[in-house]
Amino acid sequence: MEGVLLLNKPVGMTSHDCVAKLRRLAKTKKVGHTGTLDPDVTGVLPICLGRATKIVEYLTAETKTYEAEVTIGFSTTTEDASGDIVEKKAVDRIITLDEIESVFDSLRGEIEQVPPMYSAVKINGKKLYEYARAGIVMERPSRKISIHELTLLSDVTTSDETVKFKFRTTCSKGTYIRTLAVMIGEKLGFPAHMSYLIRTKSGSFHLDQCLTFEEIEQHLEHGTLEGQLISIGSALKDLPKLIIHDTLAEKVENGSVLPLPSEFEHLEVGAPIVLYNEDSVCLAIYTKHPVKQHVMKPTKVLINKQN
Tell me, what CATH number does 244's domain have? Predict the structure, then answer.
């Protein structure tokens, strides 16, 4: 069994938990996820099975779409609903739709964001959440992110001196929606946190393509799970593509260096080129040679003499 399984990740499980469960269900060790979701977050989590684990790094999508809820009135240690309260300030005035739209306008485009302390970002070889659990607050460098879309999805509701509303955002890889919720609150003049989050899209993968664990178990029981997997070739369809004939295909299977077609000369070293045979089988991923001119070298051979 090989390919990409689109999981609708449930609440309460880490991405690692999901991988471990799928290893047990599919009875294979070759399982890997393509992008971490926090335990409280649900939604699109592409999981690679079998040889598809070789393409994990190419499926960490540059853009993702989320639907979230922000609660205005108190902030937390983790910037989401699971943390301890850090600061409270009663929302003692009406927050208008025009105000929210003005804040959204200020956050669209390229902005600076400081990663939260409870995150897997590494400083001095140690993850930030490890420092946070030890009660140490580290200085974190800001990073540039892009907010492509920021849209209000709900009415603004008031309860117990707090205000809540839902929004949708499409953003660049590396964006923390928890921190975005905090930033929205700050611009409105109040502490805030993210109280709900679902990832609805990761690259070209949509939520409506995803299976729950219950559905996965049903497919396994009926022997139909393999038909639900996205092939390696289909998963890589948005990357630069080259179809080669059988003679070259044999060289690819042996990991040979090949001439670089002129249409790929503009690519940077490291940019992937996906090679398919004439039967549309994905054979390998190549890139421009870092030293030799007009040549490309393999970075991942997906089908070789040993397969």
Answer: 2.30.130.10
Residue 307 is assigned to a structural domain of this protein: no
Count of structural domains, the chain: 3
Structure confidence by residue, pLDDT tens digits, 73-97:
999 999 999 999 999 999 999 999 9
Task: Write the pLDDT tens digit of every residue in 106-139.
Answer: 999 999 998 887 877 888 888 888 888 888 887 8
- Is residue 254 located within the same domain as residue 224? no
Note the pTM of the prediction, 2 decimals: 0.88
Q: In 10 A of CB 6, how many CB atoms?
A: 20
Closest CA to 48 of 283, 231, 204, 224: 231
From 17, 38, 80, 105, the catalytic residue: 38
In a domain, 95, yes or no: yes
Q: Which amino acid is at 78?
A: T
From residue 278, alpha-carbon distances to 126, 133, 220, 256, 282 in Å are 47, 54, 32, 18, 10
- Examine the residue annotation and report whether 38 is marked as an active-site residue of this protein: yes
Domain-located, residue 110: yes
- Evaluate whether 156 touches 175 at the Cβ level (below 8 Å): no
Q: What CA–CA distance (Å, rounded) separates 4 from 226?
A: 10
H helical segments located in 118-200: 128-133, 177-188
Domain residues for the domain of 56 are: 3-61+204-234
